[in-house]
Prior knowledge:
Radius of gyration: 21 Å
Shape: globular
Number of strands: 20
Amino acid sequence: MSERREFEVIVIGTGIAGASLAYFLAQHGCGDVLLLEREAQLAYHSTGRSAATLSSADSNPTLQAIKIASAPFFREPVPGFAESPLLRETGVIALYPEPAWSRVRAAAPAMQASGLGCTLLSVDEVLTRVPFVDPTQFAGAMLIARDGRLDVHEILSSYLRHARAGGAQQRLGLAVEGLIVEGGRCRGVRTAAGELRARLVVDAAGAWAGTIAQLAGASPIALVPHRRTIVTFAPPPGVTIGDWPMVASDAQSLYFVPEAGDLLLSPMDEDPMAPCDATPDATVIAAGLERFARLAPALAPRALKRRWSGLRTFSPDRVHVVGEDPQLPGFFWLGGQGGCGIETSPLIGRVAADLIVHGHSDAFDTALLSPARFLTA
């Protein structure tokens, strides 16, 4: 382990947020970066427990714009970034009953004009792709054909590999116990291994981002973790799922998608809780399986293979919080990724790096991400 105690930037958290930032900082020539991770392994929490899907459509227009801007990074990575493809374009289908279906049809031209590559499908067209969905449960669907499954391991490891090549250091199993604030500025962190100092401390701690901010005495922005659960199970005998698209239904509050020969299902639970090593709730799973049995009765499982939960952390308006704290210079927010930290990391990491190196970014309207938006006059 390096004995260095001073760095240009210290990043708390080596999940997808911290890793993507370190990558884009390296692209700017800023390699004097220390990545700190409280866990002894990478991607232990949200990054390693995601559904690994690129789904560009979003009811929040700001998030949809971020996703659309991020998607090309996965579809056509810059040469040399990764050792294998980042995305399998298996598609994402969203099912809608009435009256939601009529609203979607009316909004489709505007969504397509915004850059969302969506196509509207009839019930029969959905059934040709996923023949086991009950046609009485929806009136139509939207397909985004170029979305699909992400290789999260390849994305995270590529971010970190290039960051390290650019000079970044990484320390695992070292938790931040306090923040150093002197003269009204954040100047480093306290750990069991002693003090580490930096010009800028980045809070990319995922579900613990709010806790880190409180330790620093930063602006009081309520970042709240919410549990999300996933289960997997075998398809029925004789059913070939192949590369089915992800199928999502807000009306049934669930989505399912093929996963290594099995089916992966989420009941789309969103229970607020304190940051923790999240575990599944049997009641939540049972209720989700009941809804799934109504939507796709022929696929309903008799037994589960795996079950796990992760935490998705939201800001008050459910959009990322990115930027230097307006009340505590030297403390930089990179939190509130919600359920889309991986699929938005190309844009968010770039914007954060731009702000750190240049003080501005032309990649996105940073006012929509700034922590200052939550502060009253």
